[in-house]
Structure formats: structure tokens, C-alpha cells
Amino acid sequence: MKKNVLIIGAGGVAHVVAHKCAMNNDVLGDICIASRTQQKCDAIIESVLRKNHLKDSTKKLYSRTVNALDIPSLIDLIKDTQSEIVINVGQSYINMSVLEACIETGAVYMDTAIHEEPDKVCENPPWYANYEWKRKERCEQQGITAILGIGFDPGVVNAWCALAQKEYFDTIDTIDILDVNAGSHGKYFATNFDPEINFREFKKVWTWIDRQWVLQKVHSIRMDYDFPVVGTCPVYLTGHDELHSLSKNIDANSIRFWMGFGDHYLNVFSVLNNIGLLSEKPVKVAEGIEIAPIKVLKAVLPDPSSLAPGYTGKTCIGNFIRGTKDKAKREIFIYNTCDHAECYQEVESQAISYTAGVPAAAAAILVARGTWDVKHMVNVEELDPRPFIDLLDTMGLPTEVVESPVPFTPPVITSLESV
Amino acid sequence: MKKNVLIIGAGGVAHVVAHKCAMNNDVLGDICIASRTQQKCDAIIESVLRKNHLKDSTKKLYSRTVNALDIPSLIDLIKDTQSEIVINVGQSYINMSVLEACIETGAVYMDTAIHEEPDKVCENPPWYANYEWKRKERCEQQGITAILGIGFDPGVVNAWCALAQKEYFDTIDTIDILDVNAGSHGKYFATNFDPEINFREFKKVWTWIDRQWVLQKVHSIRMDYDFPVVGTCPVYLTGHDELHSLSKNIDANSIRFWMGFGDHYLNVFSVLNNIGLLSEKPVKVAEGIEIAPIKVLKAVLPDPSSLAPGYTGKTCIGNFIRGTKDKAKREIFIYNTCDHAECYQEVESQAISYTAGVPAAAAAILVARGTWDVKHMVNVEELDPRPFIDLLDTMGLPTEVVESPVPFTPPVITSLESV
């Protein structure tokens, strides 16, 4: 039994994690939210209290300031707050420092996105091997539970792969993870999470095809798919975190990720990208100031957390899996749909943050109960999926399974360069 | 007789002014090019020498560093270089300081664009009244020749209005200034002059309709016109400097300005504008740095002077003028076409810089000869146009006149607000 949760970060995902942890604080104990800007943490606490989500009012919900790149400060914070579970939902640049602080203090580590270095984009695959997995041995030696990528994608979609392997298939040929947001925020243009991290995803497309890494151009391969509930949407082959662990841990020939984009989004993205405004490389302006264009873009785009109140429509994220069971061909679509307005009604958030935040809170509960307190570093597909999926069913993210769904059959995808 | 020219600025227009002044330095005397960055001045000098354009090699062509917002430095520079003619082709923010230094030293002042303050955009009309015209009385008292807006538009198009009034019409009903660049620079996106100043033009559209100022939305009124040489191009009602003096000095009912834009340009412009990246108002990025988005955009876009070598195609700028002569209706199109590649061949520049720079050099010659040394502040339409037009005919910018051209008949343009 572990208890007391330290949430690092105060963005949209942290907001949802805080709500869901508070709603389960009889299991999780005290909750501290820490970030660079304490007032952002306090705004989350106000939302939790406004919604009357603090289940056990004898437990604490409070905020702290922290520089999450400063390992000694993090260690002090973990010790001082007596946190046994750390949920890192800050910017992707802080994973390694927070992980280090957990290893040093014995706390459980979790995150929802892969580590990145500010000046490097779309490094060579598998990405986890460049950073997190280098701490695998130390976690093993010191009995540290570290659960990597426990949001929705990566996260739930990884658990679905494990579930498919365990309960639905004898052999898996292809897994296509399809992620579409069929909602509308009503703004000219906005990203649903940190624009800086969002756009960094779209620099290169790494995909796992026939058990090899294949490199493709962004937004170059499009498929239309008739999704349950939200209907037909265009999706584009995209690089994504989860491929970088699933390719190692799941016995499948090809694992691809597809993200939905509308024409307007792609036009805006294309203009910004072609002009160089998505670049993380600093430019020097006439006045001598040096700054990365993407940081300025982030400053002018709507704050993702500001989108929640007016958001309408639904997201649909699912795994289309093709393989065999009992020597017969089998295809399933295992998915979740999530409604933006219902999320706002429940926790004052939109569905993108909701789907990323709820799984981390569910994992914290499983760790607190001991079910997932595995004492080493894992990606989600390495854990027993069933208790997680069952718990999510009760926490707002139910899993649906369709047998013999509308077929999803992408063209042959070739590599732009040998890798 | 005035002599010795000080060119302030080292951009694309300064480059052309320097070439054309050097080609006429038997009349103009010594030429000094001064800007913030001396190496940009020196690059221009190298181009002039490479093209063997220094007509009289006993005259000097040299560079200096100057902060053109620092009036005492400017005064020292004018005195030290014994310049009697100052051609200001730097950023629009420096007009008032350079003008002040000219008034203090007795030098002739010229510019090619209206004064702007960095933090103000598209102020109330007429724009000249907000800045330059406030120095009219001092120029008059001290016998200072100040020629405002002596590029192409403003500049040549103003002289054509004067020419029309003097030689072609008894009464003028409408003047439509049409400016189209039918050339191609081969880049994804670029502006032909300083992007910061370029985009500031497109915030509001002030137009002079039935002797009143009318405010319209940018790119909201489109007309297609079959131009001489370059053929049919779309043009959009746009605000522009020259309307702010022509409305006062030319007896016409309506004076409109139209600029050509292709669909790709408008799409990119629209994305950048809607997102807020054209804003001159500083934003604060997460790291605490404050910067105006447009300055970052400028840093990532191609340097306008880099476009010249590969530029193909032509510009066409003309005045469609409708009125009466000897009691009969008359319509003329008075215009110039300019070829990008020919400009590069001659002075290593593109046609946008060429058309803006040649008129300033021509005006300097007219001032040096005494023809235009009028000892007060004028806009171009207040000067005798004939010697100017005739001189341009010999300097690479010939004027053509078509009687009864293809009709240009815009719709009724109403104001978005009372002004």
C-alpha cells in the first residue's frame, strides 16, 4: 500500500488528475500539486473544491512551487510532502529529473508522455531507449515502480494491446491506433495540449512496419475511417510515443498510429511549418533577442485549458487489431468515445485532457492498492491490463469492443530512408 | 545647386538608390550610405563597384554607421559628410528623427514611405497630418526642401495624378491606383520589402470615397483587372500612404488603392493574421522574454534582398483615372511595367526595390539641378511632374499612357464605421 500523491505540473492534464485523485483520496491520501507557477496549482484546487470532489475531507489537497528540472528540490519536495506516488504531468522536458528524484526517494514514478530534450526533435527510435529505459536497471535494483506513458495514448491504447494479446488473439498481424477528435472548440486555431509539445510530434513520422522502423513524411498518408459514434473522419499516419515501446513488447508485425486532422488544421499547420514558425531552433531578431519561433507561437495561441468551457463534440480513440484466434482470422476495434461537454460538466476540463488524465489517476489507485506496484520500470503493455480497464470503466473512460468492425486497410507504407 | 548625397538605410531600396545615384554622381557629388550595420552598406558599395556604376571616379562612395533615431548623431553625420541631400530609405520609424536633423542642418529631406511609430498601426487619416505635416511650418520658415513619399507608390503615382490634372483632365472623378506584382520569387512565402512594414499596411483599409474617409476590412473587396503586359490579375482594396496626401492635394471625388494578391499569399497572410503573428504588440513567452510576434516572423521569412537573383516576371503599377476633358468623358490608364530579371541584370535588385528606389534618385537629381529644390515641405503631387516623368523615362521607369483602357469600375464602397 502506497499513499500520498504528488502531482507535478498544473496544465490541463494535471487538472484532471487532481480531480480524479481527489475523488479517490480515501485510497490515495494527501494530494500535493506542484509546478513553476503556484497560482495555476491553486486554480486547480479551487476547481476541485468547487465541484465538491474531495471525497475524504480529512485528507489534504494543497499546492507547492517547484522547478522540476532541479533534482535536489524535487527530492526535498517528495520527502517533505511524504509522497509515495509521483504523477509527472508537466512538460516532457522534466521526465528524467523527476524520475531521478523518485529513484533517489523510493517514490513511484508515472508520466503520460515521453521525455524530450528542448533542442532535439523526433530522435532515432525507439525513443524510450534514448532516455527512460537507461534507468531501467537502477529501478530494478532499487525496487522502484516506474510506469511510463500512462495517459490515453500512450497508456490505455497500450493496455488494449496487452488485452488483445491476452484475451482476443493467438497471433497479431497489425495494430492501427486511431485517434480522432471530432469536437469543436470554436476558435480559429488552437491545440488541445501544449502547442510546443504538440507540434514537435509532427516533424517526422516513425512507424513500425513488418518489424522494422519506417520513416515517412508528415501528413503524407491519409485514410478515411468510419468511426463508431463520431462517423467518418480523415486520419493521417503520424509518429507517436507508444509505438516506441509496443514495437518491443507486443508480438505484432506492424503497429501504426493515425491521427485525425481536418483540412483547416492541416492548412494552418502547413503554413506555420513551411514558414518555419514551428521550429524549436532559436532565431535572432533584428533587436538582438534570440528565441525559438515555436515559443512565440505558443504565446499567441489560446491556452489549451481555456478551450474547455465551450468545447462540443466527442473524441474517439481506438485500436483496430487484425490477427488470428483459434486458427481463424479475427478483427476487432477496441475503443473509447469521450464527450467534451460531459467532461467539462464533471471536472471543468475538455476531453483531450480528460482522456489523458483519468488513466494516470486510475494507475495511481492500482499502485496504491498494490495491484500495479511492480517494483521496476514498465511500459503500460507490460502490466496486467484487466484491472486497469475495469477500473477505467467505472471512472469515466469505458472500453468498447466491436468484433468485425468496418475494415481499416492502409496501403503499403515504404520508408523514405534506410534506418 | 545642391550636392553630396547621404543615403540612410541599407535595405533593398537603398541598394537601388545607391546604384542610380552613383550612375549620376557627376551631378550628385559624393555619396555616403549609412545604417545600423555598416557591412550591409559595404555590400551595396561592392555591388555598385562590381557593376562599374560609379560614373565619376573622382567622387567618393563610402559607408558610415548611424543610429537614425539619434538626432545629434544624424546632425553630426550630415555635417561631417557635407551632405546637402538626405535620402531616407531606412525603416519607417526613423522619418521624424531624420527630418529633424535635416531641418537643423539645412539639408534636403526625402523619404519613400510615411512615418510610423512601432506601437501604433493604421492611425486615423490623413496619416501625414499625424507626423510629417507637423513640421511643414518649420520647413517653410527655414527654407527646407522636404519631399515626402518619393518612391513609386507613393511617389510616381502621385506625380501621375498631378500630370493627369495638368495635361489630361479638366475635372477628375475617380483615381484608382492599381499595383500588381506578377512576378515569382520561387519561395514558399516572402515579402518584397521589410515584412514588418509590409504587414502593417494590411491592418485596416482607409479609402477616400466621395471626398470622405471610408474604413473597410482588409482583403474584403476584390476586382479583377486585365493589365497591360501582365494580363488579368486580382486586386484588393488596400490602404496606402499616397491616399493621405492625394485626398488633400488632388481635386477628385474618389481616390482608391488596389493591390494584387494571389490566393496562396492571401491564405498565408490570413493564417498568420488570424493567429496573431502579425501583431506589433509584444507577447510574453513562458521563459519571460517579451517580443512582438511580427519581429519573429520577420526573422524567419526570407530577407527581401535575397529574392533578387531568381526573381522572374514583371510588376505593373498604374493609375486608372476617370474624368472629363473639353466637356467630354475621358478615361486613361497611366502606368509602368518593370521586369524583375532586367532589374537584377542592371543593378542586382528586384523590381519592387527598383521601382521604389529609382524615383528617389531621380528626385535627388532634380533637387541637385534646382528644378525641385522648392524650399518647403511637399508631397510629390505638389511638384511639377513633367521633368520628373521625363527623367524617369531615361532612368529605367518609362511611363505609358493608354486612352480608353479596359474599364475599371469598382462596386459602391461603404464605410464600416463613421469617421
Please tell me the overall pLDDT of chain A. Answer: 95
Q: Report the radius of gyration of chain A as a whole number of Å.
A: 20 Å
Structural class of chain A: alpha/beta
At the fourth level of CATH, the homologous superfamily of the largest domain in chain A is: NAD(P)-binding Rossmann-like Domain
Domain Saccharopine dehydrogenase-like C-terminal (chains A, B): 151-396
InterPro entries (chains A, B): NAD(P)-bd_dom_sf, Sacchrp_dh-like_C, Sacchrp_dh_NADP-bd
Domain Saccharopine dehydrogenase NADP binding (chains A, B): 5-147
Keywords (chains A, B): Oxidoreductase
What's the gist of this structure?
By secondary structure, chain A is α/β, with parallel strands linked by helices. The first copy, chain A, is built from 15 helices and 18 strands.
